[in-house]
Each structure stands twice: as structure tokens, then as C-alpha cells.
Design brief:
- It is a single chain.
- This protein has about 130 residues and is α+β, with helices and mostly antiparallel strands.
- It has two domains: about 70 residues, Arc Repressor Mutant, subunit A, CATH 1.10.10; about 50 residues, Dna Ligase, domain 1 (2-Layer Sandwich).
- The strands form two sheets. A three-stranded mixed β-sheet has the order 4-3-5, with no helix packed on it. The chain has a two-stranded antiparallel ribbon with strand order 1-2.
- A hairpin with a 6-residue loop joins strand 1 and strand 2.
- Helix 1 crosses helix 3 and helix 2 crosses helix 3.
- The radius of gyration is 17 Å and the shape is globular.
- The chain starts with 7 loop residues before the first helix and ends in a 6-residue tail after the last helix.
- The model has no long low-confidence stretch (mean pLDDT about 90).
């Protein structure tokens, strides 16, 4: 769907996420929109985020806990904190050649994703390093 034909709610949700780097959940985005006075339902936020992901404007990140959304659609890697669940971008060169790896008969690799897991600095500072 052309950005010019977006509904007011879709535009509102896109504006709320497009510059974020914290990979929010639908619930987190919804709570922020409500705090800002937006009249939008949680179901609308979920549907819109998933639609934006299908259209290639967001990446939907699956893992333990609720799905998170990333407006940075360029190839990159992530770090997930095992304590708080936050996801951080990892600033290392993306390895396109990993998409060319041969896994054996019948396998076709179309992309790859690497997520490191551990404990983020904020959780370590709070002494929450038991993962």
C-alpha cells in the first residue's frame, strides 16, 4: 500500500516506531501511543506492525517472550539480554557469504540471522546477572 494511502492510525504507528532503536514489542509501542494521547487499540497496533513487516518496512523479531519489531531493515545482527529481554543492534559487518553456505542435499539457504545472548550492561549494573 502506498504511504500516501495509509490510514491515520497506520501513519501514527509508523511515526511512533520508524526511528526507534530499542526493538519495541507491540504492547510497549501501544503504551507509548496511549501515554501520548493516541486513540488506538492494542489489536490495531499488532495488526499494523505485522502488516508493516509483511510490506518490508519493519523486521519482526521472534524469540523468547513477545515478538519485537525493528525499523532497521538493513542486514544486521542482534544481542538479546537473557535477563530483561531487550534486543540491541550489533555493529559488526554483515556476512553475506553466510547466505551461500551449503547445508546438504535438499536445503536452500535464503538468509541468515545471528543473535548473541547474554546480559546487557544495565542488568549487570543492577546486579541482575543470573541468567
Amino acid at each position: 500500500m502506498s504511504i500516501n494511502r495509509w490510514t491515520q492510525q497506520r501513519r501514527l504507528i509508523w511515526e511512533a516506531i520508524k526511528d526507534r532503536t530499542d526493538h519495541p514489542t507491540a504492547e510497549e509501542l501501544y503504551q507509548g501511543l496511549r501515554r501520548d494521547g493516541a486513540r488506538v487499540s492494542l489489536a490495531t497496533v499488532y495488526r499494523t506492525l505485522r502488516a508493516l513487516a509483511r510490506e518490508g518496512l519493519l523486521r519482526e523479531l521472534h524469540g523468547p517472550g513477545p515478538d519485537r519489531f525493528d525499523p532497521n531493515t538493513s542486514p544486521h545482527y542482534h544481542f538479546r539480554c537473557r535477563v530483561c529481554g531487550r534486543i540491541f543492534d550489533v555493529e559488526i559487518p554483515y556476512k553475506d557469504e553466510l547466505d551461500q553456505v551449503e547445508l546438504g542435499p535438499g536445503f536452500i539457504v535464503t538468509s541468515h540471522a545471528i543473535v548473541w545472548e547474554g546480559i546487557c550492561p544495565a542488568c549487570r549494573e543492577k546486579g541482575r546477572d543470573a541468567a
